[in-house]
Amino acid sequence: MVSAALLLPLLSASPSATAGHPASGTLQSAFTAAAERYGVPSGVLLAVSYLQSRWDGHGGSPSVTGGYGPMHLTDVRTALASAPHHSHGGEDARGDGSRPPKDLVGRELPEDSGLPPRLRTLDRAAELSGLPAERLRTSSAANIRGGAALLAQAQRDLGRPPSADPADWYGAVALYSGADDAATATTYANDVFDIIRTGERRTTDSGQLVTLPADPRAVPDRSQATGLGLRTTDAASTECPDSVACEWIPAPYEEFGEGDYGNHDKSARPASQSVDYIVIHDTEATWDVTLKLVQDPAYVSWHYSLRASDGHIAQHVALKDVGWHAGNWFVNAKSVGLEHEGFLVAPDAWYTEAMYRTSARLVRYLAKRYGIPLDRQHILGHDNVPGTTAATIRGMHTDPGPYWDWAHYFELLGRPVVPSAGPGSAVVTVRPRYGEHRPAYTGCVTAGRACAPHGSGAVRLHTEPRQDAPLVKDAGLRPGGQDSTIDVNDTGARASTGQSYAVAERLGDWTAIWYLGQKAWFHNPRTRPTAVGTRGWVLTPKDGSAEVAVYGRAYPEAAAYPEGVPVQAVAPLPYRLLAGQRYVVGDRVPGEYFFAPAFDTSKHRVVRGEELYYEIQFGHRVAFVNASDVRVFRS
Question: pTM for the complete prediction?
């Protein structure tokens, strides 16, 4: 009778993940019912779900690794993509003219070795719960029940009885992670029990308020992890914080004929050059394929990969060395690249909380190590890295895209995007409400076709203060003067959470900012603002200057280059920063060029000039201006 009573609401009245707004308390009740049905403490079930999805159903759409619903039950066959991230467009990941560009367009992906169990948990949940796979994908209540069944089975597999004490479930939680190594499984379990001890309270994407009361007495027996039979990873060479699971899977530094080599450059950072940026990417490939690519000497490289399902980290390139990842050699030489397993547009691109958390811990560690400010002028998306010259702008990559939750990410970094000035401030920082802010995009699956509705941290920029006004133009992306579009990969009229801009004008519910040399309007109503007031430094052309040049890299003046190092052209981008316009300053940097044209590191040189540059938030991407051309002042 109890089983029938629990099954009835699952098959009838319980909320579908595609439903609009189920009755308040329904989701909380689903957690309680599933916990009772399988003898799992409700706190454990709630905390595991929070670490996977923050209790969101995502409208029944899978995550970047094919995980469904609040419990992230995986069926990765539904979310496999067909092209590697670094083959998109014409970007040369190295981004340096001292060597021929590495042509990756049309490159075939390595074969997947097979789908590991962590990517096939939905079928197992269907067997254990007796619920159809389709219900587990589309019903949040069914999905929660399937997750509870998996946890209960993990407890049985360990030979442990059901228990009302959360502390007795440490081993089962570690197994639920799906990790194949002990370090990742225990890190995952530690995160779950941190959530249990501190508690959580959140309104989900379906409008449901879910609460996990704090249980500070939930101290697990971590010795349970010793009997899991998982492999031990090689962490000896890694540079990671103790709070994450990290293994060393090195990228090769090898010659392979005709003077060519790969897939990164040896250096001596930070003694040779400062590390000023961290670049956030997504892989556009599965974990298995990602690791095969970065171990190919003829491919390109990045410093770390992060796995979506459990937050596991693999380091490939030593931090002192330079990876080929950002498409801009100046940025590469002064940055660390993090690739996150996932697909920008497949199909609604939600990332697990486990990956967000380990990524944030890694970034905090790197920022502290190198003194990198935790702001959006230094923590860049790949889509914020500028093209090096006018010819490279159109080929620059667009990940992690408009669905990456920058607001939540910066909360995890300990630097939430909050106002530091009043509503009439001269500078604003973009900050829409991610879950409720759902601008339309096209091109996620088919060119021109609408994407599934999804939360976004990006606002759209118009030429006038009205929704039907044309979008602002990007002279670099479209030299012919065509309008920007709402395609998911079109960054020409987009400003994202955390990016700060100088205010040009306000009119009713609309705010105009200076953007790519023009006035750009976005909807910013007082009752539901999409930006917050900010204090900061801004710059404008010096008095008497009608305009100043804008650059995609901060290279030294010609006189700084020693004999044997070819002078790199300081070519302006096809934009104009006009008198009277103001742009937010990110940093002041010296003109630098890392000359590394060959495998033999004895020929490497760092060229540093007298000329200084300011990094600015110019459009969706950052840019550089010559310090001698501008005047800087506090907004």
Answer: 0.94
